[in-house]
């Protein structure tokens, strides 16, 4: 449990997703036992979705291996951790941990530089000198001014960045889903424009038929309610619903046995409800929408049950929630088709944005075509000049290698009595 507490504390939101650590390390006398560096390998865990996920997980894992730091984490208030007060404890971790953290930071800086270079190449920046130091400023999870050693400021930045980014991660997923739905509707409307009147009418009728068919699903239990959990208890666990016991249910579905429901464990509880709405073999059911529904369900339960907002549900929080009126008598749960994802105004703005992007792409294509034609003309001119130069060189070579013959009529003597020979070629004569 202390290791679990440690994980939660280090980065508030990021660590709470890494619940696969299995045992509490045993503190040993470091003066008697030395741990080889090769044993410091980070465990496999759930990806947070952050672009610096691996760096974050490895830093946390190595810090947890330091007894002093682990003890401080265990006794530090969550708000103090988020404000960066714990980061100062980095000065007291063991030397081999600090050395490993330095290595991790150098690897992360090199990774970011490689990404920057790749992005520059893709955008046509080949041959340009890249100011990596300036571009690294956009990555706030480390101190880019010092790319070699892991310092207190690096830990402070990592904690705050992970906290902020993960708090906004679900929002970004919702935004992506909205764009997905609008693009799907845009494509449908564009396809209708290509059809004649009869085909368009049939397509519209088919579309409405699929919508009605999708909406005709069994009753959906409110996520996290007694009815919903009892259904899991009966159908997934094979137990008598009349014997439902919240504590037993919690222990059954706390799959890693750490005493908490994390986000993945919660989302697994909604599978039975989602199967009532979505079937991957049916045309009317979209699996992307299913994952959005799962996300909405998890967010709802977290908002209702996770009272300390650490993105984990403890056994105590769960038991308290099962005693509320909302658990026993929940409101109806509105599924996605009952909640408009976007307005017509948002759709209009989205299509205008697509039109602008399309026009920009057309213009760029035309510019590139013009550049290509200009380059082809320049190449033709260079080829012509090259041919002329080659012909001139060949002519000169012929002149140089041409046999020089002595002209018989040009022989004579100068005033001093010396012999003079006049040499001739086809066109030139000189003494």
UniProtKB/TrEMBL annotation:
Tagged with keyword 4Fe-4S: no
GO cellular component: a single term: endoplasmic reticulum-Golgi intermediate compartment
Native source organism of the sequence: Electrophorus electricus (Electric eel)
Recorded topology in the membrane: Peripheral membrane protein
Principal subcellular localisation of the protein: cytoplasm
Family of this protein: Belongs to the nucleobindin family.
Domain of life: Eukaryota
Residues of the EF-hand domain: 241-276, 293-328
The protein's name in its UniProt record: EF-hand domain-containing protein
One of the record's GO molecular function terms: calcium ion binding
Keyword Coiled coil set for record: yes
PROSITE patterns the record matches: EF_HAND_1, EF_HAND_2
Coiled coil: 354-402
Signal peptide segment: 1-23
């Amino acid at each position: 449990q202390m290791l679990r507490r440690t994980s939660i504390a280090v980065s508030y939101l990021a660590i709470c997703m890494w619940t696969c650590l299995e045992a509490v390390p045993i503190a040993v006398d470091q003066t008697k036992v030395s741990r080889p560096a090769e044993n410091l390998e980070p465990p496999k865990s759930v990806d947070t979705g952050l672009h610096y996920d691996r760096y974050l997980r490895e830093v946390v894992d190595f810090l947890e291996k330091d007894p002093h730091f682990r003890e401080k984490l265990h006794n530090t208030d969550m708000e103090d951790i988020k404000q960066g007060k714990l980061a100062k404890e980095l000065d007291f971790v063991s030397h081999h941990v600090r050395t490993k953290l330095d290595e991790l930071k150098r690897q992360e800086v090199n990774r970011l530089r490689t990404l920057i270079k790749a992005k520059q190449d893709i955008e046509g920046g080949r041959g340009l000198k890249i100011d990596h130091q300036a571009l690294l400023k956009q990555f706030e999870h480390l101190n880019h001014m010092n790319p070699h050693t892991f310092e207190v400021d690096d830990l402070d930045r990592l904690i705050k960045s992970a906290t902020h980014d993960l708090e906004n991660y679900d929002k970004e997923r919702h935004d992506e889903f909205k764009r997905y739905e609008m693009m799907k509707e845009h494509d449908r409307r564009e396809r209708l424009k290509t059809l004649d009147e009869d085909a368009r009418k049939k397509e519209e009728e088919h579309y409405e038929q699929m919508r009605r068919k999708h909406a005709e699903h069994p009753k959906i239990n409110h996520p996290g309610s007694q009815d919903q959990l009892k259904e899991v208890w009966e159908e997934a666990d094979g137990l008598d619903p009349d014997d439902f016991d919240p504590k037993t249910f919690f222990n059954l579905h706390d799959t890693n046995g750490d005493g908490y429901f994390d986000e993945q464990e919660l989302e697994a509880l909604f599978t039975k409800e989602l199967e009532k709405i979505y079937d991957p073999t049916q045309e009317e059911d979209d699996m992307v929408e299913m994952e959005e529904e799962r996300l909405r369900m998890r967010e709802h339960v977290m908002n209702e049950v996770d009272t300390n907002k650490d993105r984990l549900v403890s056994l105590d929080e769960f038991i308290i929630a099962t005693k509320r009126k909302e658990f026993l008598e929940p409101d109806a749960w509105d599924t996605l088709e009952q909640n408009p994802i976007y307005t017509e105004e948002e759709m209009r703005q989205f299509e205008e944005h697509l039109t602008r992007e399309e026009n920009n792409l057309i213009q760029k294509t035309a510019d590139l075509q013009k550049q290509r034609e200009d380059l082809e003309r320049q190449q033709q001119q260079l080829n012509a000049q090259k041919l002329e130069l080659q012909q001139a060189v060949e002519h000169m070579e012929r002149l140089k290698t041409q046999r020089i013959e002595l002209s018989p009529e040009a022989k004579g003597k100068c005033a001093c009595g010396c012999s003079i020979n006049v040499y001739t070629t086809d066109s030139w004569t000189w003494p």
